[in-house]
Predict the 3D structure of the following.
Amino acid sequence: MRTPIIAGNWKMYKTPQEAVAFVQATKADLLKLAAAERVVCPPYVALPAVKAALDGTDIAVGAQDVHWEEEGAFTSQVAPGMLEGLVTYVIIGHSETRAYQGVTDEMVNKKAKAALKHGLRPIIAVGESLEINEAGDTEAFVGNQIRAAFDGIPASDLAHIVVAYEPIWAIGTGKSASGEQANAIIGSIRAILAGLYGQEHADAMRIQYGGSVKPGNMAEFMSQPHIDGALVGGASLQPDSFIDLVRIAIEAKGLS
Ligand code: 13P
């Protein structure tokens, strides 16, 4: 049984004070929902305060990106060693970093390897544009992103990696994939991982769906066999909504 994992990607929302207020407002309820892994990914500047507010709990903290170099003249970037001890997870390859910061498949691979080396758990995000989707090329495109991201990563690291399938056309648009569509693509991702690492490893890997996930459609996604959780933007920003997402995931997987 794969433990569901619900991660809130707060993107460029919430000051450190607002982030801590969210944690204080949700902590007691989230602690009762231990059948799922709960992760919050605030902006970098809020990480120390959020980490301190969650110390001693099993609610995990994640960063939204990481550089692959150990250090250097890379203005604005954060090295993996700087996140050690501060976060458990790091989102890598989110479509917004691919689109606005020029992150390529090769960089995703380097970032993932650097994160793993520092004991950070990558949440590797992949997903296709509307154009690719409408051309019927989603499986091929996402498959290539997966092969590139995992290039040279040994099977022994797989237990520390989560994949997130986020169709770009579904992010922040209110237009989500259907549960069945998302399940089919995620199933194809699992098949590729099986080809790379063997069925047993592929079956153990957790793969999330992301893109306009809300409490109202969470059950539809989480009742699909291949979908192990969600990477949530907008609906992760409100305390009640985030708690509901976790509760619905646990119920849909029959874990409550
Ligand atoms: P929304 O949930 O706001 O569509 O964002 C999804 C996302 O990009 C999470 O990483």
Summary: The beta strands are 5-9, 37-41, 60-63, 89-92, 121-126, 162-165, 206-210, 229-232.
